Amino acid sequence: MITGREFTFTPQDFERIRTMIYDRAGISLNFSKQEMVYSRLAKRLRANNLAAFSEYIALLDRGNTQEWEAFINALTTNLTYFFREAHHFALLAEHVKSAKHPVLLWCAASSTGEEAYSMAMTMAELYGSMNPPVRIIASDVDTTVLEKARAGVYNLSQIERLPHEKFRKYFTEAPGNQVRICTEIKNMITFTKINLLDERWPVKGPFDAIFCRNVMIYFDKKTQARILEKFAPLLRQDGLLFAGHSESFHHVANLFRLRGKTVYELASHG
Ligand SMILES: C[S@@+](CC[C@H](N)C(=O)[O-])C[C@H]1O[C@@H](n2cnc3c(N)ncnc32)[C@H](O)[C@@H]1O
Prior knowledge:
There is one protein chain. By secondary structure, the protein is of the alpha/beta class. It folds into 2 domains: 11-75, Chemotaxis receptor methyltransferase CheR, N-terminal domain (Chemotaxis Receptor Methyltransferase Cher, domain 1, Orthogonal Bundle), CATH 1.10.155.10; 87-266, Vaccinia Virus protein VP39 (Rossmann fold), CATH 3.40.50.150. Helix content is 39%, strand content 19%. Helix 2 packs antiparallel against helix 4 and helix 5 crosses helix 6 (114-127). The site of S-adenosylmethionine has 24 residues, from loops.
């Protein structure tokens, strides 16, 4: 037990929380994450006026839907930024450039929106239009980050590494050293809550590309395989799956083949 703390937190509590977040969101927390769990959930205990993690677990056990949402939101890691792993966006443009159909993209762990907006800006540049024939579904399990994504308001410091040209074209200034994504770029995207662990996803392909970056690292191989099996039939035959820089899907070689730079294509693609 960790003592001298604001809240009582036993190894058994950690074990229960580990199981609960794994079952609900697929997130695998190893034992080194005890401190992280304590600090991220402490605010939930405070908000609920509780003194011990066991009381918090009991609250979740009673099926409090709102608290379950807050619990998941607290335990997700949401780091993201505009044009993260920039070579992927160049590849995306190259891939859809000769498409003869309206393009459909899925950003499957969008966090606060920077990735989906980077995809949308890439498409606007490719088509030379603020209204290209492109739809982007952007989803996340965390409802707090989705709210931020929908708002599309960021600190100026978050875009200071973008070329000035992009700033001028796609953002407007907002009060308090903030910037706002322009309406046309926003209109290309539908933000919605999707838990990748759910049996059914409210999406219909076929997608030209799925971005599922820097989220699979939180899942074990079994969970990854389950999700990848569901991605495969949603992709066009020549569709691409973009993974994060430290993610690899060689354990599902029957479904996906590495095309290079953490980009995968269907193994069945000729
Ligand atoms: C580290 S961020 C990555 C954001 C973005 N894809 C990127 O690469 O910059 C991981 C995101 O995955 C989301 N996530 C975690 N578990 C999830 C699940 N079961 N279903 C959907 N999204 C999930 C988190 O809420 C978080 O916003």
